[in-house]
Specification:
The structure holds two protein chains of two kinds. Chain A is mainly alpha-helical. Chain A is built from eight helices and no strands. In chain A, α1 crosses α3, α2 crosses α3 (about 90-115) and α6 (about 150-165) crosses α8. The longest helix of chain A has 24 residues, at about 40-60. The two termini of chain A are about 35 Å apart. By secondary structure, chain B is an alpha+beta fold. Chain B is about 40% helix and about 20% strand. Chain B is built from nine helices and seven strands; from the N terminus they run αααααααβαββββββα. In chain B, strands 1-2-3-4-7-6-5 form a seven-stranded antiparallel β-sheet. In chain B, β5 and β6 form a beta hairpin. Chain B starts with a helix and ends with a helix. Classes of the chains: A mainly alpha, B alpha+beta. At the A-B interface, α1, α2, α5, α6 and α7 of A face α2, α4, α5, α6 and β2 of B.
């Protein structure tokens, strides 16, 4: 786990019942209303509204709900300490995805060093160090389990392109990889899922 | 098949240059195996979309929300007026303003600006949605036909182009209601109709500054489509393959 300021209650089951969003709509009303109206407060409100999508993006990286929540927490705190760098003319989600992705890469590098594989590239380390099927897997459905079972470099790119509307060029920038790599990862991700569907007794859509 | 197979996802995503997209289209028409491969990828993508959509419905842990709420605040340097609660629609508006995505072919990115295939982009998304929703007997629509006035107001405001609810009863179609979708990164209005055999025909509409000229027919997956450009929007009629009345339906809808 990351060394965060996570309170012990972070993963207890009491939850805010946020409004249920319709399939494929992309936002949620802020859970709290503005009390003061300064920049940090605005940013907090927008981050709060963005939490479901941030958690989903983090989950595509970590493939573990608890780790995703740690990562989102750290990313939000990072953003709030840099509220002065918040460019309102740009979509907040893109900024936050970038912060989240960079934090995850640093985390992977730290883990790699800790276990004495300091020379392993971060991308390789990701596959080595994060669960593939997930001992932490608490996937709420068979469908989600299929996504969690994809390697991180596939699921996160698929999410960005297929769901979050990134062009290949934008995804290449977000993930710091060549455009051709984005193309191949998106394709491999869909191929892997298609193979699952094709399996006897495989998932149905 | 192999040389094209690797490019099918890029084709689906509207990321191929026009010429390559045309080549793939020709190859698809000539090669049932390649077509099957494309359909498998579309099914996989629909599954991923559904799974990722489910994840959004999961409740955010209260403690996580509290950490954000109670975090120490940094001194602000930016005092411009805040947007009024950024919703996904606002995000879509930003996307529109930046000219990313859209019906007439997305761009490969702001930095490059190279136009790429106009094809299937949003139509492929529409086919995916149609496959998912047309099978929803009881939950076909978000808002029912009995609220047609609300549908027009709501979707016109959401999509950014005038959304009609044309009367297609001359084709035996009953208006059932509507959904709001996101295709190629933009909001799309989806109006659902059913015929006497309870087969679903959808009329979809996406805002664009450069509507297409004339009518075009194509087949994506198990669906036939007839698309055309109207006032500030591109339209498409989607139905099961083998229907021979989609062109007529499209023409009626286009006159509405």
């Amino acid at each position: 786990m990351m060394a965060l300021t996570a309170s012990p209650s972070l993963f207890q089951p009491h939850c805010i019942a946020l409004p249920r969003v319709a399939l494929l709509t992309r936002g949620i009303e802020p859970a709290t209303k503005s009390r003061e109206g300064d920049v940090s407060t605005d940013l907090k409100h927008e981050l709060t509204a963005l939490l479901p999508r941030l958690r989903r993006f983090a989950r595509s990286l970590t493939r573990s709900v608890p780790e995703a929540d740690d990562l989102v927490q750290e990313a939000c705190l990072r953003a709030l300490t840099r509220a002065d760098q918040w460019d309102r003319s740009q979509p907040l989600d893109r900024w936050m995805f970038r912060i989240t992705r960079n934090l995850w890469i640093s985390e992977i590098r730290k883990r790699t060093v800790r276990i004495g594989q300091g020379q392993v590239p971060a991308e390789d380390a990701t596959e080595l160090q994060t669960p593939v099927t997930g001992e932490h897997s608490v996937a709420a459905s068979q469908l989600q389990a299929q996504i969690d079972a994809l390697p991180e470099d596939l699921s996160s790119v698929l999410l960005a392109v297929s769901v979050e509307g990134y062009s290949y060029a934008e995804a290449a920038e977000l993930f710091d990889v060549p455009l051709g790599t984005v193309m191949s990862r998106v394709h491999r991700a869909r191929k892997a899922l298609a193979a699952r569907i094709a399996e006897p007794g495989g998932v149905t859509t | 098949m192999t040389q094209y197979e690797e490019k099918l996802s890029a084709f689906l995503d509207g990321e191929l240059p026009e010429e390559e997209a045309r080549e793939i289209e020709a190859a698809l028409a000539a090669d049932p195996a390649l077509q099957a491969e494309l359909e498998a990828l579309m099914a996989a993508d629909a599954m991923a979309q559904e799974a990722f959509a489910e994840m959004l419905d999961e409740p955010v842990p209260a403690a996580l929300a509290a950490v954000v709420r109670d975090a120490p605040e940094a001194a602000p340097a930016n005092v411009s007026a805040p947007p009024a609660g950024r919703s996904w629609l606002a995000a879509a508006a930003v996307v529109l303003a930046l000219g990313i995505g859209g019906a007439g072919g997305y761009m490969t990115g702001l930095s490059q600006g190279t136009p790429v295939a106009s094809a299937p982009g949003w139509l492929v998304d529409i086919a995916d949605y149609h496959r998912v929703y047309a099978a929803q007997e009881r939950h076909l629509v978000e808002v029912g036909a009995d609220e047609a006035d609300h549908i027009r107001t709501w979707l016109t405001a959401s999509v950014g182009a005038d959304v009609p609810t044309p009367d297609l009863s001359a084709h035996g179609l009953t208006f059932e209601g509507a959904r709001l979708l996101v295709a190629a990164g933009k909001p799309v209005a989806q109006l659902m109709y059913r015929d006497g055999d309870r087969r679903v025909v959808a009329l979809c509409l996406i805002q664009t500054d450069s509507p297409r000229d004339g009518f075009a027919s194509q087949t994506i997956g198990a669906f036939d489509m007839v698309s055309w450009g109207g006032d500030g929007a591109n339209f498409v009629i989607v139905g099961d393959t083998g229907r021979d009345d989609l062109q007529d339906i499209a023409e009626t809808a286009a006159e509405a």
